């Protein structure tokens, strides 16, 4: 168990070093298979990272040789449904679905996929902002080969990342692919397996220390809101945010460090 402030984590690890929070799935004996406990702890850790001024980026990875093998099959119980159709109540709340809440986290989220990722875990992974995968690691959607369907919003997000045909291929075939093919599809960027996590943490740290954390948060919000906006709405939001940015501390620092030819010291304000 790990205590962090008032929170006790049983199935994840959480640490913050040099502006980067690292959340580690910590069930290595089960290839970090997903559980309700793990989900609750991940949400708590992301809330803690969001509230922490000393955290500017979030890296999520797995302990041992895997990222996450998907939902723990030992916990699954076949469900009988009497629903006649899909209940669309509340479906307009696009950033408060099972994993879409990740899109609303105002700090960049890096998925450091160090080993196998499958099923439910892949649904989680596609909602990260950046996905890095260790050379040789494998992924699969799994669902169709278990008699299941594309769940947890993956049918919405995956085509936006890799296109409709490629998404249908991965979802309907449930075939296993390696990191290099995933990279060719545009789903991940591949890095050497050696020092993989440290490399991803370094990439995250460089991003949030050389660019304004305030700018990153606003740009992330602009990008994901654009999926639900017209061009006119996106332009109107950009005009509003540009006016706000021009009076911010980070804008003043952005100009100052450029003129003075020195490293920036952004505050995120």
Automatic annotation (TrEMBL):
Family: Belongs to the enoyl-CoA hydratase/isomerase family.
GO molecular function ontology, one term from the record: catalytic activity
Pfam families per UniProt: ECH_1 (PF00378)
InterPro entries per record: ClpP/crotonase-like_dom_sf, ECH/Chromodomain_protein, Enoyl-CoA_hydra/iso, Enoyl-CoA_hydra_C
Protein name as it appears in the record: Enoyl-CoA hydratase
């Amino acid at each position: 168990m790990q205590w962090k402030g008032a929170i006790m984590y049983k199935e994840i690890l959480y640490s913050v070093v040099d502006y980067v929070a690292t959340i580690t799935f910590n069930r290595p004996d089960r290839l970090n298979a997903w559980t309700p406990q793990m989900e609750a702890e991940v949400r708590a850790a992301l809330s803690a990272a969001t509230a922490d001024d000393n955290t500017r980026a979030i890296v999520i990875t797995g302990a041992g040789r895997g990222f996450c093998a998907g939902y723990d099959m030992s916990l699954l119980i076949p469900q009988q449904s009497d629903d006649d159709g899909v209940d669309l109540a509340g479906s307009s709340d696009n950033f408060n679905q099972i994993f879409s809440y990740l899109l609303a986290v105002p700090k960049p989220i890096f998925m450091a996929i160090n080993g196998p990722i499958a099923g439910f875990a892949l649904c989680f992974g596609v909602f990260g902002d950046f996905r890095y995968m260790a050379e040789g690691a494998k992924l699969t959607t799994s669902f169709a080969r278990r008699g299941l369907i594309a769940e947890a919003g993956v049918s919405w997000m995956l085509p936006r990342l890799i296109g409709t045909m490629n998404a249908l291929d991965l979802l309907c075939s449930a075939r296993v692919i390696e990191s290099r093919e995933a990279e060719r599809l545009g789903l991940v960027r591949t890095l050497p397996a050696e020092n993989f996590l440290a490399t991803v943490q370094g990439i995250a740290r460089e991003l949030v220390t050389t660019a304004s954390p305030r700018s990153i948060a606003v740009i992330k919000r602009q990008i994901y809101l654009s999926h639900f906006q017209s061009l006119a709405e996106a332009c109107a939001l950009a005009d509003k945010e540009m006016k706000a940015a021009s009076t911010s501390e980070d804008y003043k620092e952005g100009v100052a460090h450029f003129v003075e030819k020195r490293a920036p010291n952004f505050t995120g304000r």
